[in-house]
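=== Structural record ===
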Amino acid sequence: MHLDDNPELARENKLVLYVVQALLGMITANFIAVSVRFGSERLLVNFWLREHSAEADDDIEEILADIDSYMENEPLRLESEVHIGRPPAGLATRTERMVYLAKEDYSAVSGNSE
């Protein structure tokens, strides 16, 4: 299957790319994970942090501003949620994609013991 055959998947991939681009150079040791959830009218970016801090708030605000600028032609509402601690195991679904996961937290979240 080509992306041309599935415009919804092509759009989701483009949105994931926007998020990944916005994360470049912004991830600190405080970030555990970042995921993207797609909805019909919104794009939800979830951030999991080790602890809440003003610096993390500023970084997330900058990341969201970059995503918003990339999405200028998208009729979606950009939303975010911040969580403290690890994301739940098995989080990735058809409507949610993990776009960043700290190496030391991979086994706990994925259920993979490697």
Observations:
- The CA atoms of residues 43 and 67 lie 10 Å apart.
